[in-house]
Structure formats: structure tokens, C-alpha cells
Model the fold of this input.
Amino acid sequence: MNGAGSGASNLCINDTLTDDELRLILAKLESEKDKEIFGLMCKRWLRLQSTERKKLAARAGPHMLRRMADRFTCLLELELAQSVSRSFYPGVTDSDLDVIANFFHGMFLFGLMYRGISDVGMKAIGEGLSLLQSLDVSYCRKLTDKGLSAVAKSCSDLRVLHLAGCRFVMDGILEALSKNCHNLKKLGLQGCTNITNYGLISLASSCQQIKYLDINKWLSKERKEEVADVDGG
Done:
């Protein structure tokens, strides 16, 4: 009895359970906190927890992004937050987007709100993340139709796009969406004051699955002229 009990107590769970069996245990954990605790057990469990992770929010530069890509190989959703202390890290740059485009090919949701990125970074995202379905680049104030149109042309299954505060956005992106992204369902254009009725008509004619369109704080050039004529009269 004692011998049998002693033998049983010496069993190691890592010697008993396969990776697939451990993944089944991980899949039954509902909260993210429990999943994090699972990964703290040992290096093997951390590796399994990392490779099964689908969503991540982080603050990171190019070096850390490469390490994240090696660790989180099945990542589908990534949100990059601005560091509170800019001395710690200045924010996402075009070089960071190039790393994301080259290492996270399977990702379908990407969100960031950084003023430093430009059309160069957006072009890299379009070329590298062809499976992208949701993109939030609100208040990325340097972006223009050129970079965003590259995303629309390459990511034909794009369904959600948020461009709030992108003040240089014009009708070009709306035309690119109408030609390439027929599954588009949500579009945020809050504060995009350079779009016109022509662009919206082009969008509506082809993207007929749209269920949400935010044009708050928007006044088309044509409408401004109409208001000016009324005031002048």
C-alpha cells in the first residue's frame, strides 16, 4: 500500500500528459487570468499557452515585436497601445509596422492609434496582412489615401475600418474600398472633413453590406458651399 502510494506521488504530470491533452485543459479555462496562471507552471506550459494565444494588447518596439512573433505563432488580433511615458518608448513607427507585416501573416484584426506612422507603414501592412478583416488607425494623422488605398487593394476581405481623426483622408480611399472591399460592414469617418458626397456615393454603390457608417463632425465641401451661400444671401 505504502509503496504503491509512494510511486503514485512521484508521478510527474509532464511525463503523463501529451501536448494535445494539455491543450485540451487550456481550452477549458475561460478567463484570461487562469490562462496566464497556466503558463506560469513551467516552460513547457508557457510555450503551449503562448502558441494557443489568439489576442494580444501590448506596447512594443521592433525587437520585442520579433520576439512576440516567435512566441505567439497563432496570434489573430493585435492592439498596440501608446506608452504613457514617451521616454520609455516613443510609439509605433513605420519600421514597427514592417515587422508586423512580415511576421504576423495570419492576423485579421489590428488596432493602433499613433500619430507617427505614415503611408509607408500602411503599405507594408497591406502587402503583408492580406487576411486582415479589421483595422483601426484612428487619429493616425499622417495617413493619406495613398497608404490606406494600398490596404484596401490588398485586403479584399476587410470588414471593419476606423479612420476617425485622419484629417488627410479624401475620396480616394472610399473609391478604393468600393472597388475592392465588398464585404465592408463598418466604416468610421468621424472628423474626416475632406471627403465629399461623390466619395460617399461611390462607396454606397458597391459596398452594400455596410451596416454602420460614422460621419460625425463631417461636412462635405459641397455642403459647406451651400451653407456659405445661404449665410451670404
Summary: Residues 221-232 form the longest helix (12 residues). Confidence is low (pLDDT under 50) at residues 83-88, 226-233. The radius of gyration is 23 Å.
